[in-house]
Amino acid sequence: GECAPIMLAAAALQRGSRHACRVPTLALLSTALSTRAATQISQRGHHHRRLLVTMSEVEKAAAAKPGGDTIFGKIIRKEIPATVVFEDDTCMAFNDVNPQAPVHILVIPKKPIAMIQDAGDEDEALLGHLMVVASKVAKQEKLDTGYRLVVNNGKDGAQSVYHLHIHILGGRQMTWPPG
To answer: How much is the pTM?
Structure first.
Protein backbone atom coordinates (compact mmCIF):
# COMPACT_ATOMS: atom_id res chain seq x y z
CA GLY A 1 0.00 0.00 0.00
CA GLU A 2 0.92 3.64 0.45
CA CYS A 3 3.46 2.89 3.20
CA ALA A 4 5.17 -0.04 1.45
CA PRO A 5 8.39 1.84 0.50
CA ILE A 6 8.84 3.09 4.05
CA MET A 7 8.08 -0.32 5.52
CA LEU A 8 10.70 -1.89 3.23
CA ALA A 9 13.28 0.73 4.23
CA ALA A 10 12.60 0.22 7.92
CA ALA A 11 12.65 -3.56 7.54
CA ALA A 12 15.99 -3.37 5.76
CA LEU A 13 17.43 -1.36 8.65
CA GLN A 14 15.97 -3.42 11.47
CA ARG A 15 15.30 -7.15 11.10
CA GLY A 16 13.40 -9.35 13.49
CA SER A 17 11.33 -6.94 15.59
CA ARG A 18 8.07 -6.73 13.71
CA HIS A 19 4.42 -7.41 14.37
CA ALA A 20 2.83 -10.41 12.67
CA CYS A 21 1.69 -8.08 9.89
CA ARG A 22 5.37 -7.14 9.30
CA VAL A 23 4.91 -3.47 10.27
CA PRO A 24 7.81 -2.16 12.39
CA THR A 25 6.99 -0.32 15.59
CA LEU A 26 7.06 3.47 15.82
CA ALA A 27 10.15 3.18 18.01
CA LEU A 28 11.96 1.38 15.19
CA LEU A 29 10.64 3.80 12.62
CA SER A 30 11.79 6.73 14.71
CA THR A 31 15.33 5.40 14.72
CA ALA A 32 15.26 4.22 11.11
CA LEU A 33 13.56 7.24 9.60
CA SER A 34 13.35 10.95 10.17
CA THR A 35 10.95 12.21 12.83
CA ARG A 36 8.83 13.73 10.08
CA ALA A 37 8.44 10.44 8.20
CA ALA A 38 7.63 8.48 11.35
CA THR A 39 5.06 11.09 12.39
CA GLN A 40 3.44 11.07 8.96
CA ILE A 41 3.12 7.29 9.05
CA SER A 42 1.70 7.28 12.57
CA GLN A 43 -0.91 9.88 11.60
CA ARG A 44 -2.02 8.32 8.30
CA GLY A 45 -4.99 6.63 9.92
CA HIS A 46 -4.67 3.31 8.12
CA HIS A 47 -5.27 0.04 9.93
CA HIS A 48 -1.69 -0.12 11.31
CA ARG A 49 -1.88 3.21 13.17
CA ARG A 50 -2.38 1.73 16.65
CA LEU A 51 0.33 -0.89 16.16
CA LEU A 52 2.94 1.79 15.56
CA VAL A 53 2.69 3.39 19.02
CA THR A 54 4.43 1.05 21.44
CA MET A 55 6.73 2.94 23.81
CA SER A 56 5.20 3.95 27.13
CA GLU A 57 5.55 7.51 28.36
CA VAL A 58 7.92 6.28 31.08
CA GLU A 59 10.13 4.57 28.45
CA LYS A 60 10.09 7.74 26.34
CA ALA A 61 10.98 9.84 29.39
CA ALA A 62 13.89 7.54 30.24
CA ALA A 63 15.23 7.92 26.69
CA ALA A 64 14.60 11.69 26.38
CA LYS A 65 17.32 14.24 27.01
CA PRO A 66 17.02 18.00 27.53
CA GLY A 67 18.56 20.33 24.99
CA GLY A 68 18.24 20.74 21.27
CA ASP A 69 15.22 20.85 19.01
CA THR A 70 12.06 18.94 19.90
CA ILE A 71 9.02 17.66 18.07
CA PHE A 72 7.09 20.59 19.61
CA GLY A 73 9.49 23.06 18.02
CA LYS A 74 8.79 21.40 14.69
CA ILE A 75 5.03 21.67 15.30
CA ILE A 76 5.38 25.38 16.19
CA ARG A 77 7.32 25.96 12.94
CA LYS A 78 4.68 23.94 11.00
CA GLU A 79 7.34 21.44 9.87
CA ILE A 80 5.17 18.54 10.98
CA PRO A 81 1.38 18.37 11.17
CA ALA A 82 -0.71 18.64 14.31
CA THR A 83 -4.40 19.09 15.00
CA VAL A 84 -4.21 22.59 16.45
CA VAL A 85 -7.23 23.62 18.54
CA PHE A 86 -5.89 27.00 19.72
CA GLU A 87 -3.06 29.32 18.73
CA ASP A 88 -2.01 32.87 19.53
CA ASP A 89 1.27 34.80 19.47
CA THR A 90 2.72 33.09 22.56
CA CYS A 91 1.31 29.56 22.69
CA MET A 92 -0.58 26.83 20.92
CA ALA A 93 -2.72 23.83 21.87
CA PHE A 94 -3.08 20.63 19.88
CA ASN A 95 -4.34 17.07 20.24
CA ASP A 96 -1.87 14.58 21.70
CA VAL A 97 -0.96 11.90 19.12
CA ASN A 98 -1.02 9.23 21.84
CA PRO A 99 -4.08 10.18 23.92
CA GLN A 100 -4.38 8.89 27.48
CA ALA A 101 -8.00 10.06 27.83
CA PRO A 102 -10.92 10.70 25.45
CA VAL A 103 -9.75 14.34 25.37
CA HIS A 104 -5.98 14.82 25.59
CA ILE A 105 -4.65 18.18 24.46
CA LEU A 106 -1.22 19.73 24.97
CA VAL A 107 -0.76 23.46 25.61
CA ILE A 108 2.77 24.66 24.84
CA PRO A 109 4.55 28.00 24.89
CA LYS A 110 6.14 29.05 21.61
CA LYS A 111 9.17 30.13 23.64
CA PRO A 112 11.41 27.06 24.06
CA ILE A 113 11.45 26.41 27.81
CA ALA A 114 12.69 22.85 28.39
CA MET A 115 11.43 22.29 31.94
CA ILE A 116 9.34 24.20 34.48
CA GLN A 117 12.44 24.89 36.59
CA ASP A 118 13.98 26.65 33.57
CA ALA A 119 11.23 29.30 33.63
CA GLY A 120 12.42 32.60 35.08
CA ASP A 121 10.72 35.61 36.61
CA GLU A 122 10.36 37.03 33.09
CA ASP A 123 8.15 34.02 32.20
CA GLU A 124 5.56 34.62 34.94
CA ALA A 125 2.98 36.18 32.59
CA LEU A 126 3.56 33.45 29.99
CA LEU A 127 3.03 30.66 32.54
CA GLY A 128 -0.18 32.30 33.73
CA HIS A 129 -1.31 32.67 30.12
CA LEU A 130 -0.76 28.93 29.53
CA MET A 131 -3.10 28.15 32.44
CA VAL A 132 -5.76 30.57 31.15
CA VAL A 133 -5.48 29.04 27.67
CA ALA A 134 -5.81 25.54 29.16
CA SER A 135 -9.04 26.66 30.86
CA LYS A 136 -10.38 28.18 27.61
CA VAL A 137 -9.52 25.06 25.62
CA ALA A 138 -11.20 22.82 28.23
CA LYS A 139 -14.34 24.96 27.93
CA GLN A 140 -14.12 24.85 24.12
CA GLU A 141 -13.86 21.03 24.33
CA LYS A 142 -16.96 20.97 26.59
CA LEU A 143 -15.17 19.43 29.57
CA ASP A 144 -17.91 20.83 31.83
CA THR A 145 -17.78 18.04 34.43
CA GLY A 146 -14.05 18.38 35.03
CA TYR A 147 -10.60 17.70 33.69
CA ARG A 148 -7.01 17.36 34.87
CA LEU A 149 -4.04 19.61 34.09
CA VAL A 150 -0.62 17.93 34.31
CA VAL A 151 2.94 19.19 33.89
CA ASN A 152 5.50 16.38 33.83
CA ASN A 153 8.97 17.59 34.83
CA GLY A 154 12.20 15.67 34.27
CA LYS A 155 12.89 11.95 33.99
CA ASP A 156 11.24 10.97 37.28
CA GLY A 157 8.23 13.11 36.36
CA ALA A 158 7.93 11.14 33.07
CA GLN A 159 8.68 14.16 30.86
CA SER A 160 9.18 12.66 27.40
CA VAL A 161 9.56 15.91 25.41
CA TYR A 162 11.86 18.59 26.79
CA HIS A 163 9.68 21.55 25.84
CA LEU A 164 7.40 22.69 28.67
CA HIS A 165 3.81 21.56 28.09
CA ILE A 166 0.55 21.25 29.98
CA HIS A 167 -1.57 18.16 29.43
CA ILE A 168 -5.34 18.69 29.46
CA LEU A 169 -6.94 15.30 30.21
CA GLY A 170 -10.70 14.87 30.26
CA GLY A 171 -13.75 13.08 29.01
CA ARG A 172 -13.61 10.39 31.72
CA GLN A 173 -13.38 10.06 35.49
CA MET A 174 -9.79 10.59 36.65
CA THR A 175 -8.44 8.51 39.51
CA TRP A 176 -6.31 9.55 42.48
CA PRO A 177 -3.52 9.24 43.23
CA PRO A 178 -2.06 9.38 39.73
CA GLY A 179 0.80 7.00 38.74
So the answer is: 0.68
- How is 14-71 classified by DSSP, letter by letter? S-S-B-TT-PBPHHHHHHHS-HHHHHHHHTS-STTGGGG----HHHHHHH--SSS--H
The set of residues, in sequence order, having a beta carbon less than 8 Å from that of 28 and lying 6+ positions away, is 10, 13, 14, 17
**Rounded to whole angstroms, what are the CA distances from 133 to 85, 120, 164?**
11, 20, 14
* Strand, helix or coil for residue 131: helix
Residues 6+ apart with CB under 8 A from 4: none
Question: DSSP character for 168?
Answer: E
Active site amino acids: 165
Is the distance from CB of 38 to CB of 30 less than 8 angstroms? yes
| pLDDT tier for residue 12 given thresholds of 50, 70 and 90 | very low
pLDDT tens per residue, range 130-151: 999 999 999 999 999 999 999 9
CATH of 65-170, one of 1.10.1040.10, 3.40.30.10, 3.30.1490.100, 3.30.428.10: 3.30.428.10
